[in-house]
Amino acid sequence: MKSFSGYKTIYYVGIVFIVLGGIRLLNHLSYGEILFAIGVLLYSGVQIRFLFYKSIADWWTFDYLKLSVNFLFLISIFLLFVIDFKLWYYPFVLGLLVDFFANILRRIKRT
């Protein structure tokens, strides 16, 4: 995602929907779940698409972590909508933590 593209636009629109949906969820307003789910689907969809551009044989630990993070995000959407489980945010928060520490480890590995 070095140059500006449609994928980058979809990625950032997904982040905006996640933030707006999260704010609406925290304030118990209507349509918060839908905005949040659309944002996570856009965000995860773009990341998974870019992960599968390169062959799995070329993946490093960071790529596997990114894939697991995106699956955790999708599991949280499944728990939120399909099962209507009240603790749907556990896989989402776990995914955020894994993503955060994976980015830190990647930056440490570069230096």
Lay out the secondary structure:
Layout: H1 6-26, H2 32-51, H3 61-81, H4 89-110
Helix pairs in contact: 1-2, 2-3, 3-4
Quick overview of this protein structure:
By secondary structure, the protein is an all-alpha fold. The chain contains 4 helices and no strands.
Report on the architecture of this protein.
- The structure is a single chain.
- The chain has 111 residues and is mainly alpha-helical.
- It contains four helices and no strands.
- Helix 1 packs antiparallel against helix 2, helix 2 runs antiparallel to helix 3 and helix 3 packs antiparallel against helix 4.
- The longest helix has 22 residues.
- It is globular, with a radius of gyration of 15 Å.
- The model has no long low-confidence stretch (mean pLDDT 87).
Taking pLDDT < 50 over at least 5 consecutive residues as the criterion, the unreliable ranges are: none
Radius of gyration: 15 Å
In this structure, how is the largest beta sheet organized?
none
- How far do the termini sit from each other? 21 Å
Average pLDDT for all residues: 87
Tally of helical segments: 4
Helix content: over 70%
The SS-based structural class is: mainly alpha
Shape: globular
How many beta-strand segments?
Answer: 0
Per DSSP, what share of the residues sits in E-state strands of 2 or more residues?
A: under 5%
H and E order:
HHHH
